[in-house]
Amino acid sequence: MTPHPSTLALTFLDPAAGIIAGSLALPALLLLYFLKLRRRPVRISSTLLWERAVEDLQVNTPFQWLRPSLLLLLQFLALALLAAALGRPAILDPEAPPTGRIVILIDRSASMSAKDGDAQGGTRLDAARAAANELIERLSPGESEAMVVSFASEARIETPYTSSRAALRDAVAGVRATDQPGDLDGALALARAFLAPQGEESSGAPATVVLLSDGDFVRAAPDGRADLPGASFVLQRVGPAPEAARDNVGVAAISARRDESDPELVRLFVRLQSTSIEPIETALTALIDGSPVRSERVRIAGASGGEPAEAPVTVTLPAPAGGMLTVSLARPDALEADNGAAVFVPPPAAIRLWLVAPGAPSPALRDALSLFVSAPEALRVMTLDEYERAAAGAAAPPDVVVFDRVRPTSLPSAPTLSFGATLPRSLIHTRRGRRPHALEPLCGAVRRGSHTA
């Protein structure tokens, strides 16, 4: 089958050499025409030649406009063709059977899972597999061999060089989609290591790298060719064009933290992105360990200027026991992988209190402190001697130590409260200038509760 001329593409295998040669030779040619000729005085028999001599003298004066010259045009064209020849021009025929070594790069990044690869609703990866199988069927028997490389955040060899079409088709079928970003530089670095022919194959056809991708991270094919000297680079795009409108809403970021005033509450922060040019309203559902907790209606403005629209969402949820906090969008779109995200929320940290008393502690003080612990065992009552021994080798130091009518000889690193007895002045001076503890507001609340008891 003879391909249509519009399907042929001209490329250069070594464009740098042609550019360097042209930038040196062409200015040098023009400089020769600007140089002033050296003449010697000669006696003539007639003045009829004076007018012609004056015009010739003006042309050869430096920094004057050049006169139209067929010789200059021919010399300029010859040098341009020579520079182009040094760039190793080649004609790519998509319909011609590939020959030589061929590296098939298949993109399996997260965007390849979008369901806009073809009119039947297949994914972009499905379209890439179909294109790879079509390329394998067109391989010239005995004249070419190919290898299959898939890549996302890392590149992986699915099969080394082989001329077996069955092995190549099995390798293409084994490429699976991931939720990882794409690293084209790493894939090209791996392909570059397998491009150089060895042994008797060094005189064969140049290698070809065929990239099957949606092209989200490929801005220009010449950038890829520049990284593959001596090999031709072909980008076969799958899915919609980069400038085409895309209908997708996804979770771009998620974080959660417990409320400082009420540790049983969790503040959830979500950032949504939309590539649709129309405003979108959808439901955002929060789940803890698979059980729905809250659902919010979210409205996202339309994308403009090629940049996706964003919408921040903040939700306060009750999560006294913690767990896996998941958010999901109820709206179906082209890419389902970014419709949900999860973050683990640990249970609230239990506050450990030590109550040091000469004997039985004050019932009112003990009841007040019990309000700030999640379990009875988190409040430990001890005598002064027990405190001195525990403070010396405590494996799990307390969060707050309360002294009831006792005066210790040493203070722990945790915040302290004292009732019915003042602390030694020397200990107070040694504690001056320390960093405030995060539980000091709680200590103040305990102090105020004790005064009112």
Quickly describe the structure.
It is built from eleven helices and 18 strands.
Mean pLDDT: 78
Distance between the termini: 98 Å
Number of separate helices: 11
Oligomer: single chain
Question: What's the arrangement of strands in the largest beta sheet?
Answer: 5-4-3-6-7
What would the principal axes of the Cα set say about the shape? elongated
The tally of strands reads 18
Order of helices and strands: EHHHEEHEEHHEHEEEEEEEEEHEHEEHH
Instruction: Give the DSSP E fraction (strand runs of 2 or more residues).
Output: 25-35%
Low-pLDDT segments = 1-6, 198-203, 219-226, 431-453
Radius of gyration: 39 Å
Structural class: alpha/beta
Q: How is the main sheet built? A: 5 strands, mixed
User: Helicity, in percent?
Assistant: 25-40%
Polypeptide structure, described:
- A hairpin with a 2-residue loop joins strand 10 and strand 11 (291-300).
- The termini are far apart.
- This protein has helices at 15-34, 50-59, 70-86, 124-137, 165-173, 184-193, 221-226, 363-370, 384-392, 425-431, 440-452; strands at residues 9-12, 89-92, 100-107, 144-151, 155-162, 208-213, 232-237, 249-258, 265-274, 280-288, 291-300, 309-318, 323-329, 340-345, 353-356, 379-382, 400-404, 416-419.
- 27% of the residues lie in helices and 27% in strands.
- The protein has 11 helices and 18 strands.
- The strands form 5 sheets. Strands 5-4-3-6-7 form a 5-stranded mixed β-sheet. A 4-stranded antiparallel β-sheet has the order 11-10-13-14, with no helix packed on it. A 4-stranded parallel β-sheet has the order 16-15-17-18.
- The chain is elongated, with a radius of gyration of 39 Å.
- By secondary structure, the chain is α/β, with parallel strands linked by helices.
